[in-house]
Amino acid sequence: VLTQSPGTLYLSPGEGATLSCRASQRISSTDIAWYQQKPGQAPRLLMSAASTRAAGVPDRFTGSGSETEYTLTITRLEPEDFAMYYCQQYGSAPHSFGQGTQLEIK
Amino acid sequence: EERLLESGGTLVQPGGSLRLSCAASEFSFSTYVMSWVRQAPGKGLEWVSAISANGANTYYADSVKGRFTISRDNALHTLYLQMNSLRAEDTALYYCTKKRGFIGYDLWGRGTLVTVSS
């Protein structure tokens, strides 16, 4: 089970964001992904193997973590970054998702 | 450009059946694990099922095990999800996704909406 926190994060453009994903048991860092989803759109892969940015993802997005604690950090928030974010483990099935963190404009 | 296009979603009565399809294009379909992920209205993502590249191995979420069957036709570049004994809680937008090895789910379709209601 993946538990994301906080459920909702209220921040202003230009601020930094820290999103957490905690696993109920150890997960290899090679099996953790982060996705961004905007209203009316399919999710978009942001980060794989915990810390590898997908193609086209700006370097203000950074992934880190190991074992049971993983973090997505966004520095200098841009207006287009306000969205829903999900972590996922994609090693062994089930490839479960966290419940998501909604990043809202304050 | 790589693409996934889902179809087959519709309104169905509880207890009914439905088959979703996902047509893949512009990538080597037969070499990738493929999955279905769903999202109930206003809710988060729920992984549903996955199938190995050659179709020999299938995996299911507990919530659909015994009711849903994933399959693929590599010659037709198409992924399927047979859904039986449908329940109201199966109402969701169903996404077809491609798993790229150690990269994760790097390609998503736009989804097809399944509504289970009388």
Structural summary, described in words:
The complex is a heterodimer of chains A (106) and B (118). Chain A has 106 residues and is an all-beta fold. Chain A is built from no helices and ten strands. Chain A has a six-stranded mixed sheet, with no helix packed on it. Helix content of chain B is 0%, strand content 53%. In chain B, strands 2, 4, 5, 6, 9, 10 and 11 form a seven-stranded mixed sheet that branches. Chain B has a four-stranded antiparallel sheet with strand order 1-3-8-7, with no helix packed on it. In chain B, strand 7 and strand 8 form a beta hairpin. The radius of gyration of chain B is 13 Å and the shape is globular. At the A-B interface, strand 4, strand 5 and strand 9 of A face strand 5 and strand 10 of B.
Order of helices and strands of chain A: EEEEEEEEEE
Q: Which oligomerization state do the chains in this entry correspond to?
A: heterodimer
- How many DSSP helices of chain B? 0
Helix fraction bin of chain A? under 10%
